[in-house]
Structure formats: structure tokens, C-alpha cells
Amino acid sequence: MTKIVILGSGVMGSAIAIPAARNACEIVLVGSPLDNELIDAMAGASRSHPGLGVPMPAAIELVKVADLSDTHFAGADVVLLGVSSPGLEWGLERICRHVQGRPTLMMVTKGLDLHDGRTTRTLPPLVDETLHRRLGAALPFVGVGGPCIAREVAEGQPTATVFGGTDPGIVDACRKMFQRPNYQVRTTGDLVGLEACAAIKNLMAIGIAASWSANPPRQGADPGRRNMNPAAGCFQQAFTEMAELCQWLGGEKETAYGLPGLGDLFVTVNAGRNSRLGLEIGAGLRVSQAMAGALAGETVEGVDTGHKLAVGLAHAFSCGDLDEATFPLTGALLTSIVDDVPFEIQTRSFWT
Amino acid sequence: MTKIVILGSGVMGSAIAIPAARNACEIVLVGSPLDNELIDAMAGASRSHPGLGVPMPAAIELVKVADLSDTHFAGADVVLLGVSSPGLEWGLERICRHVQGRPTLMMVTKGLDLHDGRTTRTLPPLVDETLHRRLGAALPFVGVGGPCIAREVAEGQPTATVFGGTDPGIVDACRKMFQRPNYQVRTTGDLVGLEACAAIKNLMAIGIAASWSANPPRQGADPGRRNMNPAAGCFQQAFTEMAELCQWLGGEKETAYGLPGLGDLFVTVNAGRNSRLGLEIGAGLRVSQAMAGALAGETVEGVDTGHKLAVGLAHAFSCGDLDEATFPLTGALLTSIVDDVPFEIQTRSFWT
């Protein structure tokens, strides 16, 4: 029996457990230090995850962090990092402490890393280096991308996802563990592009959503209406800049044109915390105000991605590797995030 | 003073008059035989177009078809076809009857043509041939594409549009007539790609919208919620197929990646009649049932585009110019349109 240990029982870590459980994999779902209440809820009579609203398959073993031991990792074929980016260090620390043998490390965590304080890169090299340093060797790695709202995965809505890694055999083995009629897994060898898009689309979604609140319906119009002309211009611009940034980070543009880039951007604009932050800053709030207000206590991945991107990008602009004029939307977003000034969407600059 | 004669006073013909009128162009807005009530409404005290909900600039001259004469065309710099595809023949007939000199012919009409009963092509060659046949020569031609909801253009929401033509000087002259702070005009030399995308995105939007009603929220969920995972998979697939079809019709893939393709697809999925038809057929209705029901009396451009595309595409598949397997979404849409059978979205086939 295939055994999968998932670290992090937030919505994404828990949702991805479901297709694998339906495929009769043995699942150990481990709550992070922030997840005790989630584990309690799933261990209750309803077995329902508060963020997913569906009962978890009964066979999934639920473990609180305080109870976690080497035993839970024994014989694992896959260890899956299911945390959001602030939990990455915790997840890696736990893996290094408990892991035995050479399970494949899968990751749904999305973000970028700032290496040596100045080079923006995707997360897998950071993961590899951490494991090398603490374990003496990295683990086989498979990244997870593509358009996935966790709740919809949990409900069994048709979902197309992409697993990426440098060893096709290992990627395909993971695909078989998770593939379900309504959880379709494509594979790619462009791990860097997959990870780059997974992070960048969060940043871009902030900008597109901001165009909605920055261009509200006219007085007297249906207040629920969203103006789509400005959003469409931003969406197309975001797509172009995402593809360029993907390539700059070492990925392929085609990956940005596919499910990991375009597909995921489409989902992210329409749902989730990045889009909610965009609505706040499009209405005139600074990022710090929004994060202290409507989004207090929440992780908005695009903000962290913005900080990590800004440093490397400034260097790329200054040394001429990239032309700043190609990135008006990214530039406006990074200014609002890093300098904490009101977001100037200046859509006109995209379009002329 | 620049003079522009617009044929067709539906939402698009009327909306595009507004930026040009604000630029102090002389505008003659001509109602089609179906537009008498629209002209009456705009000539009333409110000057409001019923489909746009904003007052038209007072300087626009409003003309009913019965009153149209050569005089209205005298000195025109541009004649703009503002009709939907069923009105194209009427518009061309009127141009041939009244036009003097060599004004530029602009066109917002979107659709495809079936040449010799078997070759699918964009509209400009049809227009050119018609003018050649009746006038002895074609007119300089500029197509209009990009993400434009007419009502938003009329309201002055920031809009990015694309004018395309083979003579850069003429395209740029048109750009200057219409360009406004909130109506930004990009230009392209890829007229074929522009026209191909303008038509194909309508077809694709039907399929993406269908994914929403085909995958409704679970019982107990917010009924207004739309599941985005299936839609994102369809959106990405639509994008890929649109780019291939654009290229097949003689356009450039980059045009499909830009505002005329991706940008316009984003808008069209979220608003308008193509998307409404998609919601109907995704819920199980045949196209004929939807067109006799919720969409009775309306022009759904994607349906006509589907019929025109189906013939040429069948030929391209049979002679090996294109691989049918590359077009699962297009294939499913064409089957539902041409054979009038329930739409089988079979999303899984896109993703594996």
C-alpha cells in the first residue's frame, strides 16, 4: 500500500489527501502547530474540515503536531508539504527530523525564495539545499501546480492539475497515486516554470482584482457588477508579464501559457485571499492597511512573493537583464507592496 | 473635421461612436432596419441608448435607415460597420449604394465566412470581394478587436482595444480618431489574426461558460457560486485551441496571446450572449432549445461562427492539415451546434 504523509492540514493539504485516499493510499495528515483545531474538527463526528465543508475519508489518519513521531513517517513513499509559505520552514524541519529512507517530497507550497539576500529563485533549490545540509542528501522532488481551489477538489469538482519534476518516472508514480476521474493530473518536466508560475500568479491576481475596485460600477448601476474591460486588459498584461518572469526565473514560457500559469491565474483572480487583497488596494487602501483590516491574520501569498521578487528584479533591471518597461503591472504591484504606498494601477501604461 | 459614418446603432456601433465624438469627430450614426426604436430613443430628451444606459453626445447625428441618402456619406473619412454578423450584408449593400471616394472601412462585426461552401476564412476577404464586385475596388480596411463590453466603453471605463490592418498609416490614422484616455487603441498588422480571434473567442466562451452550469455547486453550497476549477481547465484549453485555429486561419499565435485573443476571451466568458448560451447548454439544453428559449430573438455570434468553422475544419481534419485530437473543446462545441445534440463537455479529455 502506498503511504503518503501530508504535513499541514489547512485547506490545500487536506483537500489533496482526498483523491489519494480514494485511490486507497494510506494517508497520514499532520496538522501544523496552527492546525490543532482543524485536526480536532476532522476527528469529530462529522469528520468535516472547517475550510472544506466536506467529510474527510475515514481512512485518513489524523495527527496533531505534538503527537508526531518517526513512526508516522515509517515506510512513507511520499512526504507532501501541504503548508502555506510561512510554514515551509516548519515542514522542512519536521521532515529532516523524522524522515527515513528516500521518500519522494511533494510540495503544494507556493512562493519564491531570496537566495543570498539578492537572487530571486523558486522554492525547490531552497528545499534541496536545506535537505542536503541537514540530511546529507536531497529527496526526489515533485511540485504541484495548476488551477486548484481546495474546496472544489474536496467536493470532487472536475479539476486539472499539473505535477512537475525532473525525473519523469517519479513524477508519473506520483501522478498515479493522486489521479482520479475528477482530479486529472498532467505532468511536466519544467519544474522551475511550474513553481515560478504557482508563485507569480498570486502576485498578478492582486493586480487584476484591484482593477475591479479601482473601476467601480457607475452610480445607479448594479453594485454587484464588475467592469470587465479594465480587468481584461490587466489579465492579458498579467499573462504577458508572468510568462516573461517565468522565463527569467529559468522556466519555459509554454508553462505560463498552460494550466500552471494561465489556468491557475484564471482561478486565482476569481477566488481567494490574493484577489481579496487586490479588491482592498484597488479601493485605495495600502497593503499594510488591508493586511491589518479585512485580511488580518491571513496569509496572502502574493505579498511574500512580491517582496522576494522585488529584490531580484531590481537587480535584473539595474544590470540590464530585463527591461523595466516590460513590467508595468509587476512594477506597480511591487511598489505598492514594498513601499506600502497606494496602488497606482495606471492601466493606460499597459496598453500603449 | 474628421467624418465617420457608423452603420448599425446597436450597442457596439453606438458605443464606439462615443470616444470618436469626444475627439470632436463628426459622427453620423445610422440605424439598421432593426434599429428604428433605438434611434427614436437616442433622439429623445434623455438621448439615452436603451442598451447602453448613458446619454449619447449631442453632436452625433442620428439617422434612420429610411432617411439614409448619399448626402450622409459625403466627405466621410471612415465608414464603420457596426452591425452584428447577420447585418453585414445590409451594411455592405448600403456602403456600395452610397459611398463616395475612398473612405476607410472599419468593422466591429465579428464572424467567419464560408467561401465556396467549404473554406472557412475571416470576414475581410469577403468584404473586399463584395466591394470589388459592386464598386470595382475594395476600400482600405481596419478591423476592431480586443476586450470591449459596449456598455463599459459608453460609460468611459478604461478599455484596451486593438485596431488591425495591412496599411500601418491608415490603421494609425483610425487610432488617432478614436483614442481617448479611457479608450486606448493598440494597433496590429495581423488583421487576419485579429479577425480570427474576434470570432473564435465567441465560440470558445460558450464552452467555458457551459462548464459552470455543467458543474453546479453542491447541494447546500451558495447557489450563486461558480466552480472555477473546471472553468479554468476549459479556459486554458480554449486558449490553446484558439491560438491553433488563429494560426490555421492565417493569423499569428501571438495575436491570440494578446488582447484580441486572450483579453477578449476573458471578457466574453464573463458577459454577453455567448456566455448565456453556454450556461444553457451546460445545463443540458440543446442549442436549438436555448435559442428558442432564453435566447429567443438574439444573435449569438458563436453559433454562426461554429457553423462556418465546422465545414472548413472537417476538411482540414480529413486532409490531415490539422489533427482533430488537438481540438477536443472545439469538437464538442461544433458537434453540439451543428448536430444540435446535448453538449458533452468531457473535460477529462482536455486534460489527459
TrEMBL record, chains A, B:
One record GO biological process: glycerol-3-phosphate catabolic process
GO cellular component terms attached to this protein's record: cytosol
Transmembrane regions listed in the UniProt entry: none
Glycerol-3-phosphate dehydrogenase NAD-dependent C-terminal domain mapped to chain residues: 190-309
InterPro entries xrefs: 6-PGluconate_DH-like_C_sf, 6PGD_dom2, G3P_DH_NAD-dep, G3P_DH_NAD-dep_C, G3P_DH_NAD-dep_N, NAD(P)-bd_dom_sf
Molecular functions (GO terms): glycerol-3-phosphate dehydrogenase [NAD(P)+] activity; NAD binding
EC number: 1.1.1.94
Family: Belongs to the NAD-dependent glycerol-3-phosphate dehydrogenase family.
Identification of the protein by name: Glycerol-3-phosphate dehydrogenase [NAD(P)+]
Source species of the chain: hydrothermal vent metagenome
